[in-house]
């Protein structure tokens, strides 16, 4: 999918500047008195948050640079204050977008940092395009997971000393309120060997594009409760 920055026109209208790494480093509250930081290559003036970002304060490590990775990892060491977000999981990248939102909402936007995320003409680099692709893929797989949970809700799980583990279905199991109860099945996703217990409507245990269902051993296929054998969890 081709990257399109939905804010590019707004950014342009806001009169953005382009900063080199060295120029941005000047805005650390000592060399220049303003405090600027960059997140995913976008530069914000955080001077009004001097109590957090000023020299000697808790979040001073973020200023004068792009330390996007540390917003997610909480690693404020010199090595941790990095702009290399490639190793982050797509859910962590989403968390990073919340920080961008915070800066967008609370602090004046100043422009773009030339480097990892933006080229010298202000257009996004391949690196940033890839990050946006990963975010879009992450969103899509989240939606698939949600849809699967709705169609095949998780079972309730109980344990007792005499009977061991029991999985059972109710019309609220997995927090999915519905007008059917269902029967427990092992639900294997095609993507892995792991399974989870899913409540399915009898007769719907056909193989589908994301996975397949297996009955619990020694459990009648139409029972809404199964006692697990020791090797089945
Ligand atoms: C991943 C770890 C963390 C990151 C990246 C982080 C980052 C930040 C940033 C950037 C701010 C300034 C927000 C602004 O400009 O409005 C902030 C504020 C603050 N943080 Fe953290 N923080 C982290 C963990 C923590 C933890 C563990 C605590 C508490 C033990 C904490 C307590 C606070 C407090 C009290 C504020 C001030 C909030 C306010 O008054 O609005 N932070 N944090």
Automatic annotation (TrEMBL):
InterPro entries for this protein: Cyt_B5-like_heme/steroid-bd, Cyt_B5-like_heme/steroid_sf, MAPR/NEUFC/NENF-like
One Pfam entry name: Cyt-b5
Domain of life (superkingdom): Eukaryota
GO cellular component: endomembrane system; membrane
Family to which the UniProt record says this protein belongs: Belongs to the cytochrome b5 family. MAPR subfamily.
Protein name per UniProt: Uncharacterized protein
Organism listed in the record: Apolygus lucorum (Small green plant bug)
């Amino acid at each position: 999918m081709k990257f399109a920055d939905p804010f590019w026109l707004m950014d342009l209208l806001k009169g953005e500047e382009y900063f080199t790494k060295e120029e941005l480093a000047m805005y650390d509250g000592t060399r220049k008195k303003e405090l600027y930081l960059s997140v995913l290559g976008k530069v914000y003036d955080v001077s009004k948050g001097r109590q957090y970002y000023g020299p000697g304060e808790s979040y001073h490590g973020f200023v004068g640079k792009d330390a996007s990775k540390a917003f997610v990892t909480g690693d404020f060491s010199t090595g941790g204050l990095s702009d290399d977000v490639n190793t982050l999981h797509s859910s962590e990248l989403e968390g990073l977008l919340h920080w961008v939102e915070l800066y967008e909402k609370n602090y004046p936007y100043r422009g773009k940092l030339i480097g990892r995320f933006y080229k010298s003409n202000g257009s996004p680099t391949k690196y940033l395009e890839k990050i946006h692709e990963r975010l879009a893929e992450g969103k899509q797989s989240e939606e698939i997971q949600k849809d699967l949970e709705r169609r095949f809700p998780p079972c309730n799980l109980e344990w007792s000393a005499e009977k061991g583990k029991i999985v059972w279905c109710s019309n609220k199991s997995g927090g999915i309120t519905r007008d059917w109860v269902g029967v427990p099945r092992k639900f294997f996703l095609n993507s892995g060997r792991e399974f989870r217990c899913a409540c399915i409507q009898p007769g719907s245990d056909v193989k589908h594009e994301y996975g397949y269902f297996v009955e619990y051993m020694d459990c009648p296929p139409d029972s809404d409760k199964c006692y697990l054998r020791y090797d089945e969890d």
